[in-house]
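Hey everyone, long-time lurker, first post.

I ran two proteins through the pipeline my lab uses and got sequence/structure pairs for each. Pasting them in order. The first:
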Amino acid sequence: MRYEEQCKGIINKAALKAGAVGFGTGGTMGIALAGVDIGATTAIQIRMIKQLGDVFNKSITESLAKGLLSSYVSQQAGRKVAGFLAGRIPVLGKVINAGVGASATEGLGWFVAEHFSNN
């Protein structure tokens, strides 16, 4: 991939932020904040998609970014459900949610970067 280093920086930064959101909402003393991370993670991912579009000189609207995100999320729904359920486990749930948020964002980023590089 021609722009791999630029993409790597954008994707890793977004994955780190999404992981932090997952960790922060993974439940404290067994109380998971169900769904709170979805809005914040979605905003991080939409921003990442737009930034990746800039790398490939593509004008990405919020609507297009949401479409790409929706396409990817529908493929990864099981991972999100597993992360939500794991989030109910005290302490360990925070770590699992962080991993799920980071890895889902990382996967999305490379999915989008590959899509942009081929189109």
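...and the second, right after it:
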Amino acid sequence: MFPAPASSAGTGGPAGAPMLSSRDLESPYGDLTRTAPPPITMAKTKKADLLTPGELVERWRGAVAEKTLRNWRNRGRGPVSTTIGRRVFYALPDVVRYERENRKTATG
């Protein structure tokens, strides 16, 4: 039904193209068939590690209102925030860092 392939005597490919070995097809980056590690998700983050704006207000005993936190976020001030979907969170290490960097000592 189909014609037999012509013998290419050493070239191994059609129209004189060289035949590639499996070594030629290896990636210079190693074995790419391995799967990547699973992405970090909210499920792997402890709930206590993320604070909502309301929880941050409670932590600071109402010294700053949620509206102030919103204004700070819009102006690039305050502790670093993370938005996941439409919700805003503050990572506890970022809050502690902000508190430490903005600590005021009494002079007198």
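Reply from user beta_strand_b:
Welcome! Quick read of the second one: The longest strand covers residues 87-91. Residues 52-101 form one domain.
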